[in-house]
Amino acid sequence: MEKVYLTIVLAPLIGAIVAGFFGGRIGRRGAHSVSILGVSVSAALSLYTLSRFIWHDEGTFNGTLYTWMVSDGIRFQVGFLVDRLTVLMMATVTFVSLMVHIYTIGYMADDEHNWPHDSKVGTNSYQRFFSYISLFTFAMLMLVMSNNFMQLFFGWEAVGLVSYLLIGFWSVRESAIFANLKAFLVNRVGDFGFILGIAAVAMYFNSMDYKEVFARAPEFAQTQVAVFGGVSLMTLICVLLFIGAMGKSAQVPLHVWLPDSMEGPTPISALIHAATMVTAGVFMVARMSPLYELSDTALSFVMIVGATTALFTGLIGLVQSDIKRVVAYSTLSQLGYMVTAMGASAYAAGIFHLMTHAFFKALLFLAAGSVILAMHHDQDIRNMGALRKYLPITWITFLVGTLALTGFPGLAGSFSKDAIIEAVEESTLYGAHYASVLLTIGVVVTALYSFRLYFLVFHGKERMNDHTRHHLHESPWVVTVPLVALAVLSAVSGWLAIEPLLIGDWFKDAIMVTPAHDTLMKIREEFHGPLQYVIHGLHSEVFYLSMGGMVGAGLIWWFVHSFNPRIDEQIQKYSGPLTWVLVNKYGCDDFNQRVFGGGSQSVGRVFWKGGDEVLIDGAIVNGSAHSVGRLAGLTSRLQTGFLYHYAIAMIVGLVGLLTIFVAL
Amino acid sequence: MESGFPLLTLTIWLPIVGGIAVLASGDGNRQFTKWMALTFAVLTFVVSLGLWLGFDSSTAQMQFVEHVSWIPSFKVFYHLGVDGISMPLIVLTTFVTIFVVVAGWDVITYRPSQYLAAFLIMEGIMVGVFAALDALLFYVFWEAMLIPMFIIIGVWGGPNRVYATIKFFLFTFFGSVFMLVALIYLYFKAGSFSILDFQALELGMNAQVLIFIAFLLAFAVKVPMFPVHTWLPDAHVEAPTGGSVILAAIMLKIGGYGFLRFSLPIAPDASASLDWLIIAMSLIAVVYIGFVALVQQDMKKLIAYSSIAHMGFVTLGFFIVFSIVRHSGVSTGSVMGIEGGMVQMISHGFISGALFLCVGVLYDRVHSRKIADYGGVINTMPWFGAFLVFFAMSNAGLPGTSGFVGEFMVILAAFRADFWFAFLAATTLVLAAAFTLWMVKRVVFGEVANPQVAALQDLNGREVFNLGALAAAVLLFGLWPAPLVNVMHTTVQNLVTQVGVCKLPAAESAACLRGKPIPVASLAPSADNPF
């Protein structure tokens, strides 16, 4: 199997290299063929691996590819760990990536229009885009398949690099290159914590290897460290690592980069900023479950941050008018749900939601992209309406995605999200009650913003201009086929996966949960098949809340909107201060811009002008040069060249010396 | 270990002879001159590769040793040799010089043969600094190095070159006279100028502290460390591209090398008691200079400040050893700290060299280094843009590039000494990314800013060769640093053992800060003895 795993990782890399460096020579068809081929190989082999795990009880693979470096007794290696957690991620990542690759053929077909005529960087932009998304697939696979902390960090930063390149893909747009710098820097703030967490692991375990660290973790369960007035080592490690996850998975307060990342082309919003990369933080916590289980404090912290993100970012989605931004805030909110699940030790439920979310959120983004294509790159939902007539496939698939997102019974999201909410209710950790309340309110909010978007885009009156209306048509098959495939998965993946993932022992030793934290036990005990689970869900408050949100949204943005098209604006106007807070995103962006952006520049200027130029160069360096000059000026007066000056000096000296000698 | 064939002598004198030959050939036939210069540079590199291939990494002994009497009455020897610390730096020197020669080929129109000759002679002298095992020989090379650099900046430099050269010269000369005093003192103590004898010398605390400070003045200026760094931005701004590359890639490393060759082994007890000073200076370099770099408007100044911040990692890694032992009771991590510093030096040689070459590419076309004069360069120079983004990412320490390796190792080592050391050092993740990528954003991305940018031509073959070779080196050591680390491993291990032994005379042994020698065994801190 080792060769299979190596092929899975390298196939997209080869595709990326060929499409990237030889894109000009092999042309557009060549570039998309080679990168799709690479990802197809990867996806096929990942699904094969998954099937081996399902039907042949394939064992965990943990092997080293090569030794990166040995220093001070620590072996830094590059290697793969493929177990039951990894294989789910591999299958999800490569499958969604493949769908996005195919979709991109249609979405980026006219990309030359996005560039100035004389821009050389625009000439092969199509090929470059394929190169980047294949490179991303490689980096993401390195991340999820790593068997050690160093390679995890490599994958972690490599996906960040590709995200940077892709958000700023249209590099002539000021907003895009602002957003990609912001994304990279905010992620670096998270990585700052992450690398310190890795350093703590290195110090105490003298190893980078997961297996060794996890095996020895219980030895350090009681260890205290003398920073921050004394904390438990496990809390320190877990919180530091989680700060990294907060950056990558866009948790409050490091969430600010994700909405701006929508400046990138839509396919990567689906792949990177919804389905895969942003879930890396969630995956990381699940992977590190043997460490997190040893620190209740860290788990509480994770849960509180996650729940806060889940509700408060969802609320912002209510006032957005850009179709992609609504979906982006929804992504933030759903990431919050996953992270909360991690905090509640419901790792299996979190990963389950990660998977279903990957399908329905990729679907929503790709469908939104299809709408954007039809609307000639107008993303404002206030200019849409009644698109169901023109884009039937997009409409139906978008509806499936929306229903899955809001947790409509029977669709994928309902299985995973209900499980998270139930698990958090079961948690006894500090902050669990808070999290539970926020997640439950979040359900209504999710339904409200999702259906607001759905009704404003696909129902009601047509609000686009005549030119756009005449050109409205369904997207080509390369766009719609991925939509249908993802819609099917959004519908059925919950039915298929709930039993093995949550009830059965799918994960085995890939995820560790201590008995005291086993919040999924209640679901397991009450489970009698998926159908019964769905029926049981019909009696839960979550179901009523989500239906209430849906009906409410339908009333406002479908029924009322049909005879008062300004209702959306009016609601926002009459809820004045609340809207103001939400539109300004709680002031996070302004705060960062002024305090961190402006502040660090001021600090830099003070250090530079005040420290380097005035103090060091002015006072000390040039100052001492001047003092030497002055001293030399003074002493040079002794050498006037006038004989009588010297004669006087000699006489005074002689008299002085004589006096001293006589006196002695 | 004496070697039959004088490989080191060849590496030193081949480029110097070549330089003289290039000088003699004059500016009559440019083609001939430049190909001759390149031939000598490549030959020297090939010869120095012999050092790497013939190197025995299982011993900490000096290798390729040459020992010939030079001034017998003062027991001065022409004594050369390399170990795992100096050998990689020599190969770095000969490697980078090739690109400097190629970069200067067509660009320098004023007395090109003298320009190329200066760099070849410079190369030989720098190799001499790394290879010298006789303190006087070392000092001669050390000071001789200033002359070609003085000329390079003074003749081919920018408008304010006179101020820059004087500042550069006085700063470095100021430091090195103190070093000369220390060397003479050590000569009288040891009875010879052999650096290895100096290292074996038993010295009292007062003497050690004075020697340590004398060396610190010399090396801190060279590195440069805060607060004696202000000559570097000025020198870089005025220097021609090649001068900047050599300055950043090699000359700064000589300061770092000095700490490993002189300060730590000769005055280990003073190093142990004054390590807080170096650590403080290093961390200030990372944080303070990081902020200063953020607000630079001149690309070369920005990269110069970035160099100072990155060299902060080098000195931090070198001097973290004592703090680690104090905090954890064992020396585990100190080898990684020193190796991290070494890797950082090599990697910084590639990356800063490449970044200065990138600025040179733009400067040759537009004759401006101001960030504000650019914008949207990628629209007219996509290949250049790709290279610049790549090197910027390496400068920001992206894993997979060599820029990551050293920083990662030093942060891991610093964490063992003190959480807050690692905390401050790790701020570079944000700061270096901020100042480098913000510059990239303003120069490379965006719409074409002005007609000059619109008229830019993408890289020519010569420039692609330079940047491509450096990019390959950055990637190679980023993806597989093992060959580099393995070469220096035994030497560094030996150095850590050496600094762990108290060198104070018996009468003062009570003042031995560290008591017993440091055990080199890789023991983990026990669970009940954290930090």
Summarize the structure.
By secondary structure, chain A is mainly alpha-helical. Chain A is about 75% helix and about 5% strand. The mean pLDDT of chain A is about 90.
Describe the structure.
- The complex is a heterodimer of chains A (664) and B (531).
- By secondary structure, chain A is mainly α.
- Chain A contains 27 helices and four strands.
- In chain A, helix 3 runs antiparallel to helix 20, helix 8 runs parallel beside helix 13 and helix 14 packs antiparallel against helix 15.
- The model of chain A has no long low-confidence stretch (mean pLDDT 90).
- Chain B is 71% helix and 3% strand.
- Chain B is built from 22 helices and two strands.
- In chain B, helix 13 packs antiparallel against helix 19 and helix 15 packs antiparallel against helix 16.
- Chain B is globular and about 75 Å long.
- The interface between A and B is large, with 70 and 76 residues.
Spatial ordering of strands, largest sheet of chain B: 1-2
In DSSP terms (H or I, runs of 4 or more residues), the helix count of chain A works out at 27
Task: Work out the radius of gyration of chain B.
Answer: 22 Å
In whole angstroms, the N-to-C terminal distance of chain B is 41 Å
Secondary-structure map with pairings?
The complex is a heterodimer of chains A (664) and B (531).
Chain A: H1 2-21, H2 23-55, E1 61-71, E2 74-82, H3 84-107, H4 125-145, H5 149-167, H6 174-205, H7 210-216, E3 224-225, E4 231-232, H8 233-248, H9 257-260, H10 266-275, H11 280-287, H12 289-292, H13 296-317, H14 323-343, H15 347-374, H16 392-406, H17 412-426, H18 432-458, H19 466-471, H20 477-503, H21 521-526, H22 530-537, H23 541-563, H24 567-574, H25 576-583, H26 588-636, H27 643-663
Antiparallel strand pairs in A: 1-2, 3-4
Chain B: H1 7-25, H2 30-53, E1 63-71, E2 76-82, H3 86-104, H4 112-131, H5 135-144, H6 146-156, H7 161-190, H8 195-200, H9 205-222, H10 231-238, H11 241-266, H12 268-294, H13 299-319, H14 321-328, H15 334-366, H16 382-395, H17 402-417, H18 419-426, H19 428-443, H20 451-454, H21 461-479, H22 482-500
Antiparallel strand pairs in B: 1-2
